[in-house]
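Hi V.,

You were right to ask for the full record rather than a summary. Here it is.
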Amino acid sequence: MIDEQQDNGVDRKATGETGRLVVRTPSGASRVLNGNAGLSVMEIIREAGMDELPALCGGSCSCATCHVHVASEWLARLPPMAEDEDAVLDEAIGRDQYSRLSCQIPFSTRLDGLEVTIARME
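Predicted structure:
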């Protein structure tokens, strides 16, 4: 699980650097968000007011309500999935090979242009 302040020795507080995050809703609508490096993908989506991603546990990797499908070309750039994230996703509706919890994806300028689709909750 991502620690609230540290991820692999990197401070997760917003760094001031920004990048683009492309978010598709389950209905197919698309938005391009500007995200601060150091925040999680979930935090960027929530700060944009996208209600389609409830993120009920607030990023503690315990509920799968921040489940997203990552565009295939981006998967290799993401950090590996931890066991706890994998276990939570086992309970998620519609899990597939592209599934990740957005609270467990630290955003960085390396991910500028990252494309995710919010998973259906029902």
